[in-house]
Write a sequence for this structure.
RNA sequence: GGAGAGAUGGCUGAGUGGUCGAAAGCGGCCGCCUGCUAAGCGGUUGUAGGGGUGUUAAGCCCUUACCCCGGGUUCGAAUCCCGGUCUCUCCGCCA
């Protein structure tokens, strides 16, 4: 949510920002109209209430019964009038809130301009894609032959976009999760969190998934709860409606969690393999920090995520989103993409395994997450950031496809071996 | 699922139609004192909106709202009434 004062005082800046991300700048004018009306009603209601408060205090002092009754009637009429104005005010306030909840965040000035994902900028590419002296197979073939990935039975259980990991496949995913958590907690200073996978509506409003993107979420109508599409939601909301001590910032959390997405908007996309499922696991990093440090915290966040790619020794690249490809909430965003040699339409493909973004105070304002810069100082909104570290299915794809051997076996990356009982390979025999 | 209790400021915890944004204590902050020092004294200390002054600053002034949420009664509600939500305790069930 943008600060209404920013819209009021620098409308042109906001219009420019909205235009840069491809949003409708006239939302600024709608917001200003509502804001003007809101303040008008607020001022009027406040002054009438002041009048009534003063009047009510005097009532006890009036001796003459007739005079007192008349005065009472007067106050009652005043009260009715206040009631009407308050009703109008409540309506305008709600309209304004709803509008503000649908206005996207503004991009940082450094974000390159672009209309859509074709104008994203590759910042750096690390590692050389392996050259194969045989035809590399896509992961769904590798997984089926090793009997570690069962897509058909996943569909039987739960429908399309579900799958089952079996034997060494399940163990490999578990090893990846453990590696990531150990790396981020042990070397990068994150505190591990195990959050609920099911959250209240306010949490999703806080992170910006609602009200605009509810169609990508699973919902339990009976208890009015939602399945979290990412650990970002519960973890960012840990400090919702709190005022943190400035001295405890930055806060860095890392959480492993299942994620649930309807993917209705992606019908027909990425249908083969396990690249895009309704349920997947992810290790997610979340940071809360002061506005002064958020930019450098983003760089270190990206680096922390890259560390996983480096540990796995798989080629990857860092891509900066242009203004047109920022999410609704992000002010600046970098994606990490792992190389997968065989699962794309024409062979090799870069797989998005992490989105690292700074949301400035956009989420913090929605979720009311504040901090006190100094003892006794006024509370201010924190900046929030998050990034995957990493998303499991696609990382699994990259491991299987990059480390496959001609005989159909898969070599286990060195960093994962301690988590798999020292094993070096997954073969058909071992999987069974 | 059954029964009961409760929801007040950063925390603990009073309050009961107006003089209550709310006692007291703790914690925080500022200052003072001090050869009894893991102490003492004094002051101060919630959040948000609007208006005014000010350089669209800091600061200051005025005002309104907020004692879980939403309605109602009343000239006036933290306080009374109704509805809801949440939390806790006990019983049952259960990984």
């Amino acid at each position: 949510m943008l600060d209404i004062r920013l819209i009021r005082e620098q409308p042109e800046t906001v219009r420019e920002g909205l235009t840069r991300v491809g949003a409708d700048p006239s939302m600024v004018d709608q917001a200003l109209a509502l804001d003007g009306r809101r303040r008008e009603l607020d001022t009027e209601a406040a002054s009438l209430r002041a009048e009534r408060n003063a009047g009510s205090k005097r009532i006890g002092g009036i001796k003459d019964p007739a005079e007192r009754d008349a005065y009472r009637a007067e106050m009652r009429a005043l009260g009715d009038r206040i009631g009407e104005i308050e009703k109008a005010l409540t309506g305008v306030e709600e309209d304004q809130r709803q509008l503000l909840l649908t206005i996207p965040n503004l991009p940082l000035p450094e974000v390159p301009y672009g209309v859509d994902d074709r104008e994203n900028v590759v910042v750096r590419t690390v590692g050389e894609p392996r050259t194969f002296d045989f035809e590399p197979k896509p992961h769904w073939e590798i997984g089926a032959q090793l009997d570690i990935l069962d897509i058909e039975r996943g569909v039987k259980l739960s429908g399309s976009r579900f799958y089952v990991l079996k034997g060494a496949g399940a163990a490999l995913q578990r090893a990846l999760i453990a590696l990531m958590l150990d790396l981020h907690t042990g070397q990068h200073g994150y505190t591990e969190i195990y959050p609920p996978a099911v959250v209240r509506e306010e949490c999703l409003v806080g992170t910006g998934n609602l009200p605009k993107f509810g169609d990508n979420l699973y919902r339990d109508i009976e208890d009015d709860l939602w399945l979290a599409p990412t650990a970002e939601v519960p973890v960012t909301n840990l400090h919702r409606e709190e005022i943190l001590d400035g001295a405890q910032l930055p806060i860095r959390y890392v959480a492993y969690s299942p994620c649930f997405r309807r993917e209705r908007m992606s019908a027909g996309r990425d249908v083969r393999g396990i690249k895009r499922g309704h349920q997947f696991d992810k290790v997610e990093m979340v940071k809360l920090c002061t506005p002064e440090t958020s930019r450098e915290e983003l760089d270190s966040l990206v680096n922390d995520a890259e560390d996983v790619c480096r540990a796995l020794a798989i080629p990857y690249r860092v891509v900066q989103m242009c203004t047109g490809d920022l999410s609704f909430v992000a002010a600046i965003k970098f994606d990490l993409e792992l190389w997968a040699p065989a699962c794309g339409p024409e062979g090799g493909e870069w797989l998005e395994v992490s989105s690292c973004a700074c949301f400035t105070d956009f989420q913090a304002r929605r979720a009311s997450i504040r901090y006190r810069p100094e003892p006794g100082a006024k509370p201010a909104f924190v900046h929030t950031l998050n990034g995957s570290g990493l998303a499991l299915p696609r990382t699994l794809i990259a491991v299987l496809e990059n480390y496959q051997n001609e005989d159909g076996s898969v070599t286990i990356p060195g960093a994962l071996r301690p988590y798999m009982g020292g094993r070096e390979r997954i073969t058909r025999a071992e999987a069974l």
Observations:
- The two ends of chain A are 52 Å apart (CA to CA).
- Residues 241 and 368 of chain A are 5 Å apart (CA to CA).
- Residues 65-101 of chain A form the longest helix (37 residues).
